[in-house]
Design goal:
single chain; 578 residues; alpha/beta; Translation Initiation Factor IF3; 5 domains; 27 helices
Length: 578
C-alpha cells in the first residue's frame, strides 16, 4: 500500500502500525499523538496532507519518509506530482450564509489560530455538547480538512467561509434528534477505566464518571466479570451500552451518553399532571393497582410511565437521573442517595418488618441452628440485609464469623434465592416480601419460615416499634410545583393501603395477574406482609433507630442528624434542632 497525500492516517496505520512512532518523530507538534484519545481522533479523520499542514512540514517530506519506512518509496514516485498537487488541496466553495446561521440564538466560538496543540478532540466535545439553539463556529488559519471530513461523514450541516488568506471559518449546526450516527464506530476513542485488581470497590468511581460524562461522549470499563448491576445502574442515567467479552476474565463494557432531551412537564388538555411512578420491588403492586382505581387521583394525574423493577439498581438509577417523580423505595437506600445531594423527600413509610429467614428440609428456631449451612442473602455485603442480619446476630450473642454467607454473582437476587429454595438448591435464605411468601407457597411444605426479624427486633428493642422498610419518595420538584397533587396522592395511598389490608382476597384478585402468580399465592403474601401507612414525621423515632442500627452494623451511612430533611419538613427540622 503506497501512502499518498489523500490517504487517511487510520488506514495507513492499520496496515503499518509501526508508522505511528515515525510520524510522532517528524515534528515536536506530533508529540501530542502519544495521547491515545487524541491520536485516535486525529487518525480517523485526517489525511496525510492534513497532518503535514498541522505539523508545518513539507508534504513531500512526510510522504517520502513514511513510504521509505515501509518500502513503497519507488511506487510513490509513480504518483508524482502528488505532493505539489495536494499542498494546495481541494476546498469547499463558499456561499451565502444559510438561515440556521443567521437565526442562531447563540454561537459558540472556538478560535484555534494561535494554538499549536491538537485541538481536534476539544472541537468534537464542544460539537457534541451543543444545545438545540446553539451552533459552533471554528476559526482556523488553514483549511480545516479533518473536521470537514468528519462532518461530511457524520451527516452534520455546516457552512464554510474564507474571508482572508489565513482565516478559515466553519459554522456547524447540531443534528436533530435521531440523526446521531452509530457511536460504536468511535468507541475505541472512549476513556478507559480498567478496574481489574482495584483494591477498592470501583462502583462509586464509575458512577461519578457516568455523571461527569457529557452527552455525546462515552467511556469504557474493563472488568474480570460482566458487571450486570453496574450496567443496570448506569443505563437508566441516559446511556447506551455495548458489551464485548474478550476472554474468560476480560469483559469490556462501553457506555455512551445519549443526547439530552429535556422533559417538559405539560399538563394534559384536561389539566392532569403527567407523572412517572416506580417501585423497587413487586411488594407494592396491590397498593398501586388500588391507586389506579382512585377516580379522585386519576382525575388529577396522568401516569406517563409505571415501572416495577426486578433489579434495585435500575430503580435507583431513575431516582438519580430525576426520571421518576414518585418512587416506592427502601428507606436505607434512599438515605444513602440523599447524601449525594439529591432533591428528594420521603413523605411516608408504608412497608414494615420485611425480613424473614426461610429454611428447606430442616427446622430452625434461632441463628444457632443455621451454623454450617450457607445463608443466601440478597444484594451484597454492603447492603441492609447483611448489615441487619449481622447486627442481630451480635446483639443476640452470636459471632457472624461462625456463619457462612452466600451472595449471587455479582448480586444476590431475591427471585433467584426464592427459586433455589423451591428447587432444593439452597437450605437457608433471607427474603423479604413478596418473595418470602412465593417461596413458602411454591415450596409446598418444604420451605418454611424459621426466623422473623420483627420478633427479634421487638425482643431487643421493646417499644421501639417495627423496622421501617420502604416508603413513598417524591422528587422535590413535584412537591414544590404540585403540592395539591402530592397531598392527594398521599391521602389516596393511605386509603389504598387500608383497603388492601382489610380486603386481602379482593386485593389478591386485583393484582395476581400482573404479578405473574396465582390468586392463592397473592393472598398468602398479602396476609403475611406488613402494610401500614405512616407519615414520616410521625415515625421519625423508628426511622432514626433503624438508620442508627445500620450504621453501627457497618452499612456506611451518615448519622441521622444529617438526613433529617429527607424525612421532615424544613420548618419542623428547624424546631427539632433548636
Amino acid at each position: 500500500m503506497v501512502i499518498l497525500a489523500s490517504t487517511r492516517v487510520k488506514d495507513a496505520l492499520e496496515k503499518y502500525p509501526q508508522l505511528k512512532e515515525v510520524l510522532i518523530s517528524l515534528s515536536p507538534k506530533f508529540k501530542k499523538l502519544n495521547n491515545s484519545l487524541i491520536f485516535k481522533a486525529v487518525a480517523r479523520w485526517a489525511t496525510f496532507a492534513d497532518v503535514a499542514k498541522i505539523g508545518g512540514l513539507s508534504l513531500c517530506e512526510v510522504l517520502h519518509r513514511l513510504n521509505r519506512e515501509v518500502g513503497t518509496e519507488e511506487e510513490l514516485a509513480k504518483h508524482a506530482p502528488d505532493c505539489l498537487r495536494e499542498v494546495v488541496g481541494k476546498t469547499l466553495p463558499e456561499g451565502e450564509k444559510p438561515d440556521w446561521v443567521k437565526e442562531a440564538k447563540q454561537i459558540v466560538v472556538m478560535d484555534v489560530r494561535d494554538r499549536d496543540d491538537f485541538f481536534f478532540p476539544e472541537i468534537l466535545r464542544s460539537l457534541r455538547s451543543l444545545e438545540r439553539d446553539q451552533i459552533l463556529k471554528v476559526v482556523n488559519d488553514f483549511y480545516p480538512a479533518p473536521l470537514i471530513n468528519m462532518l461530511q461523514e457524520e451527516g452534520y450541516s455546516f457552512h464554510y467561509e474564507n474571508p482572508s488568506f489565513n482565516t478559515h471559518i466553519l459554522y456547524v449546526n447540531p443534528k436533530e434528534e435521531g440523526e446521531e450516527k452509530n457511536w460504536l464506530e468511535r468507541k475505541e476513542e472512549f476513556e478507559v477505566l480498567d478496574v481489574r485488581g482495584w483494591r477498592e470497590d470501583p462502583f462509586s468511581a464509575i458512577i461519578k464518571k457516568a455523571n461527569e460524562t457529557p452527552p455525546g461522549e462515552g467511556f469504557r470499563i474493563i472488568q474480570y466479570f460482566l458487571p450486570t448491576p453496574l450496567i443496570n445502574m448506569i443505563e437508566p442515567l441516559g446511556f447506551e451500552v455495548h458489551i464485548e467479552k474478550r476472554g474468560p476474565l476480560e469483559h469490556h463494557v462501553y457506555f455512551y451518553k445519549k443526547k439530552e432531551v429535556k422533559r417538559e412537564r405539560k399538563k394534559t388538555l384536561s389539566g392532569r399532571v403527567p407523572l412517572v411512578i416506580q417501585s423497587a420491588t413487586p411488594v407494592v403492586y396491590p397498593i398501586i393497582m388500588r391507586l389506579l382505581q382512585s377516580k379522585r387521583l386519576m382525575d388529577l394525574i396522568k401516569i406517563e410511565e409505571l415501572k416495577i423493577w426486578d433489579k434495585t439498581e435500575k430503580h435507583l438509577g431513575w431516582i438519580i437521573n430525576g426520571r421518576a417523580d414518585i418512587s416506592f423505595s427502601a428507606v436505607a437506600a434512599v438515605a444513602k442517595l440523599y447524601q449525594k445531594g439529591l432533591d428528594i423527600k420521603m413523605k411516608a413509610v408504608v412497608v414494615w418488618d420485611n425480613f424473614f429467614i426461610l429454611t428447606r428440609g430442616f427446622e430452625a428456631r434461632d441463628f444457632g441452628d443455621l451454623r454450617g449451612k450457607p445463608i443466601h442473602l440478597p444484594l451484597i455485603k454492603a447492603a441492609p440485609p447483611y448489615a441487619v442480619t449481622t447486627f442481630l446476630m451480635k446483639a443476640l450473642g452470636y459471632d457472624p464469623e461462625e456463619f457462612e454467607f452466600a451472595f449471587g454473582n455479582p448480586f444476590g437476587r431475591p427471585a433467584d434465592i426464592k427459586e433455589m429454595l423451591v428447587k432444593g438448591e439452597a437450605e437457608v435464605g433471607l427474603l423479604r416480601e413478596p418473595e418470602a411468601s412465593f417461596a413458602i407457597f411454591e415450596g409446598k411444605g418444604q420451605v418454611k419460615e424459621a426466623i422473623r426479624y420483627a420478633d427479634l427486633w421487638e425482643k431487643l428493642f421493646p417499644g421501639k416499634g417495627n423496622l421501617p422498610n420502604a416508603g413513598i419518595l417524591f422528587k422535590g420538584e413535584v412537591l414544590r410545583e404540585y403540592p395539591e397533587v402530592s397531598r392527594i396522592f398521599l391521602e389516596e395511598a393511605e386509603k389504598a393501603i387500608d383497603w388492601v389490608v382489610k380486603n386481602p382476597s379482593q386485593a389478591a384478585r386485583l393484582s395476581y395477574e400482573i404479578m405473574g402468580i396465582v390468586p392463592e399465592e397473592a393472598e398468602l403474601f398479602l396476609k403475611r406482609v406488613t402494610f401500614k401507612y405512616a407519615p414520616s414525621e410521625r415515625v421519625i423515632d423508628h426511622i432514626t433507630h433503624y438508620i442508627d442500627v445500620l450504621n453501627k452494623a457497618g452499612y456506611g451511612g451518615k448519622p441521622f442528624g444529617e438526613l433529617r430533611d429527607l424525612f421532615l419538613e424544613e420548618e419542623k427540622t428547624g424546631e427539632k434542632q433548636n
